[in-house]
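== Sequence, structure tokens ==
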Amino acid sequence: MTTGNSTEKEKRTMGIHFFYVVLILSLIIILLATKKWTTIERFTDYLTAAGTISSLILGTLAIIYSFISSRQQSDALGSIESSGKSIREVAVKMASVTSSAEAIQAKAESRTETMLDLVTQLKSSISSLQENTQELTSKSADIADKVLGVQSQIEAISRPSEAPLSEKVIWNKDTLSDALETVSLTGLCAASLVVKAFGAQEKTLNLTKYTEITESQNFNYLQGFLVGWDSAFIFELEPTKIAEAVGYKVLAVNPELIELLDAQWEQRFKGANERQTLRWKGFKNAIDLSVF
């Protein structure tokens, strides 16, 4: 360890001595050269010429350096401008995404308000039912009459299937419109499938083929939807076997449904983006291919 420190100290000492020796020799050379060249005639003219030439060389180097620096600065400004354009494009895309998010949020808020209205109506209906039940309990003398009234209503709803659809239940335009506004896209496609089949030659729809074309995993939902609306007498279906597929023959459809369905599709297309529009058009094309 001590040997290493001693070696480093010797190197530093030699370096200092070498610097002083070179400095002294340089001064001696300068003094000797000055003494010799000053004896030359017109030494100052030579010195002036040498200074002029040095100035010209330095000026030329300065011009070349400024040209190179200007070129580099132009490249840098071009890179900054390109970056600015990229930032502007990103800003435009972000603004587009923000606008789409706001539209989705507005639609979600609208659906939420609709759901709240339905919940309010349900609460009101439950409250009304409770009031009627309490009134029924308090007025025991009227129980028999009310039971007969309920029985007659059940008989009216449970009429045989041979009766016309309009006699089974009455759906007005407003209630049917509310049902279509709250139904899902899959349910809207199912209703469209029924209406399209009703206008076809054999009035038959192939539910299995529709789910295969759309690659849908909602077969059970679609079938349940059709059964539910059939039970609600919005349309009347008859199950039929088509080879190995599940199908239905459409016997009757509420005329208000036919009128409101196109309006509902048009309304949903208005609020849809390009991707959703193409997807929904694909569903409608699948509907056309699933009826005969």
Notes: Residues 146-162 have pLDDT under 50 and may be disordered. The two ends are 101 Å apart (CA to CA). The longest helix spans residues 43-138.
